[in-house]
Amino acid sequence: MKHFDEAATRAPLGFDRLVPALRAAFAAGAQVPPRHVHAIEADGSKGTVLIMPAWSDAGFLGIKTINIFPGNGAQGLPGLHATYVLYDARTGVPLAMMDGNEITARRTAAASALGASFLARQDSRRLLVLGTGRIARMLPAAHASVRPIDELWVWNHRPEGAEALAAQWRAEGWNARAATDLEAAVREADIVSCATLATAPLVRGEWLAPGSHLDLIGSFTPAMREADVHCFAGAHVCIDTEEALQKSGDLLDAMAAGTLRAEDVRGTLATLCRPEQLGRPNETARTVFKAVGSALEDLTAATLVWQSSDID
Length: 312
Fold this sequence. Notes:
Blueprint: E1 2-4, H1 6-10, H2 15-28, E2 36-42, E3 45-55, E4 60-68, E5 80-88, E6 94-99, H3 100-119, E7 126-130, H4 134-144, E8 151-155, H5 159-171, E9 176-178, H6 182-188, E10 191-194, E11 213-216, E12 236-239, H7 244-247, H8 249-257, E13 267-268, H9 269-273, E14 287-290, H10 295-308
């Protein structure tokens, strides 16, 4: 079994390759059972363990184990740790162990950009990122692969984190700054992308401008939410998979409040990529993309890594 460390896993996963690969994968489909979700508590620390399998007609089977511990930030540790094992789907033979953190972050950012490629205005250039974690840091590059992003704002509940990330982005050549007034930043953004572990809404619907695109990719359980229920009222809403309707606190709250009905969701990434349904309906519509993640995305990324390696 081959081992791919963080750098080796990252190398083949540029967004210019990964976003189109996800588009093709969602159009083709795969076998993706519901994820296993387990709550864990040890010595007062609480976390969530996800086990996510998927397999495809291309002959690959992958299983990701991902551990999410939101309290890790106080210890200076990442809140997410993951491993990915790729197998031959015809024999069950293990092929490779890959860095699950890198796969998770890159496929999540790529799925965010894939959603925006259908839903954000073609001229979207001002991106506001909420969060400063691994996934948040990748969002500018991901979105710039599908839209002409040339202005970045970043907000975080710890302002010093936002300042540090804005400085890092400037060093990388981006026109970036930290946002201290979240409402003002949301009102001015073309794309608002939330990549946090928040359990209470951060973005309010009244702040979102006509023609804006709201991207919600951080929350993945019923207890997590990044947007209030008014963000969905009157918006053109799409989701990554049907599982989002059961797993997303944002969607569950909106459906309970009556600002969104399940039947009003306009499409999934599969129906958008085939294409069976319309993306953005017009230039003034407000669009929302809600993702909880799919093992199909992990399998697609892992397959790219495997096929790009020098294996006889």
